[in-house]
Amino acid sequence: MKNTLxxxxxxFLLILAMxxxxxxxxxxxxxxxxxxxxxxxxxxxxxxxxxxGKDGKxxxxxxxxxxxxxxxTNEWEVSYDSGKSWTSLGVKATEKGETGNTGANxxDGKxxxDGKxxxxxxxxxxxxxxxTNEWEVSYDSGKSWTSLGVKATVNDESGNSAKELARIAYIRYLxxxxxxxxxxxxxxxxDSWIALNCGVVEGSYASKDDALAALVAEESIKYTVIxxxxxxxxxxxxxxKIVDLVIFMGQSNMSGRGVASEAPLVTEGHGYEFRxxxxxTKLYSVSExxxxxxxxxxxxxxNTNKTGSMVSALMNSYYNERGxxxxxxxxSRGGTNIExxxxxxxxxxxxxxRYKAAEEWLxxxxxxxxxxFMVWCQGEQDGDEGDSAKEYTQKxxxxxxxxTNEAGTDFCAxxxxxxxxxxxxxxxxxxxxxxxxxxxxxxxxxASALAAGFINNGMxxxxxxxxxxxxxxxxxxDAGKNIANYIKTGAEPTFxxxxxxxTYPTDVIPSEEPVSELxxxxxxxxxxGINLSDIGTLSSGALTVTADxxxxxxxxxxxxxxxxxxxxxxxxxIVDYQNPGNQNPGVILSSGSASGQFIFLNAHQFxxxxxxxxxxxxxxxxxxxxxxxxxxxxxADTQSLKFYQNGTEIATTTLGDISExxxxxxxxxxxxxxxxxxxxxxxxxxxxxxDTNEFHAE
Length: 698
Hints:
The protein is 19% helix and 28% strand. The protein has 10 helices and 34 strands. The strands form 7 sheets. Strands 21, 22, 23, 25, 30, 31, 32 and 34 form an 8-stranded antiparallel β-sheet that branches. It has a 7-stranded mixed β-sheet with strand order 14-13-15-12-16-17-18. The chain has a 6-stranded antiparallel β-sheet with strand order 24-33-26-27-28-29, with no helix packed on it. α6 packs parallel to α8 and α8 packs across α9 (428-440). The protein is elongated, with a radius of gyration of 37 Å.
């Protein structure tokens, strides 16, 4: 019967021979059938000449070799990597053994009987018993174990135990035969660090650093240390075999609507594309449009809409900071809301499969993956659809969880969406949701907020939603640098945030919840959660702002003031605004963009002006004074807007359809030409139309 295992003593010695072969030593004899009588040998069991066996050597920690019979060669083979590769032991499974060597000092042995055909082979498993310190074999996949009677405690001439020798043998095997093995290895034997070069023991060192230095003494070759999953082992790999695996997900501003020829070139070896859909057989050099042909009709498809993205710039910046290339996987589609990417849907399943295919290919081809994460840029569609911050946050969290659990990503880097040119506040809810989520979550970081300023610096396309290639280049450069620094330091990225005119994440993040009333008395620092001393000098219940102290162009409100078109409101403030020779407007509140919402004092004609996206109204000329009380009162029922100075109505106008108001900045907030200079004593907003007798009285 083909592929059978010889029974009785022959099987025992065959297994023992294989064990000793794995530990770089073997017996000098194998079984023989009908062997000659041994000289002075001990009486053999069942007629086979006996030989004094050497003590077995300990196997590698936690590694169970697998055995099989090759159907073609009919030889026993061993695998040390869970069946990925097999090495012949040079022992046939169906032929009789050679004549045994003459035993030493033993009694004459009896002729043995011919062995019978064994039953169908079962791949044995091997282990060392923790109690008896003997090698054991299992023929039933680990359900039961039988001792082979071989101890694993022998020391060699250098004093190395069998266990240490087994570990060295295992490392030698890895380096010599395993495609995934690194070039060098270190391991700690409790007394010292052993350094190995291509399987050869280089020496014993007092510390890991000393052992590493011995291996990488040649300065022309750069290496890094990567912890393996094998206890006590460290691998030292060539940098060109170490990569970070990243999937780029989201909608059109992730896919890219720029101009490919204007994107930066990625230096060979500084970044790669794995084409999981169109050609999952190799790594490609990065070129724009990134992911152009990655269209899956059963998942995510973009056809030919990708024209130039942020990915090339991101990879360049990332490599410059980290020194390790990204292997990028594309999975994005324009016009998709966050629900499109929901768990168990075709899109997210496609993303998971693409990512896992890239990981499998890299490991099979000898790469070491150092970092694994996703980059997310999406949200415009949800802003257009008016999704709530709560809905968006919950869905984003579910997507990140699914990528973590199913694809194995470690975190998500969010490239925050920008503003819409024709309606700068349209995406405020999504922007706030992404900001707050990254600030509070340990699953995500805010990689860049740069896009929020694109509407003011010419980096928006004429469609008002997509960025120019210059914008993509700037955004990718910023995100790549911030992500790399986060990986290097573990610290949350810190940068200027043009949306809130503050520093992320050290300053208070504006809340998504609307505020119905806000009052500043200017009698203490950090009033209502913002640091007023950042914009001026607090003294005796007043805030004095000069041109120099207002260099930040206003201060972001902790809770932006959101007013729906059908809501009444009142703003009142007491100021000393003489405007000596200054023609710039004195901005009290603003949305942060030139075409947004404002309440300001017209410096040139000294009038009070209110503007939303649909209307602009202005009072008659004001009377200058040291402490002036102004009020703007809007009645939503009548759509009338009234201006007051010192409690007296000075102008009334009927507005057209009022837009949704969002005031984010106090005493400025657009640029150096739109800031307040003077002294302010009081500010009050309330979500109702007040009568004059309800105005603030000092």
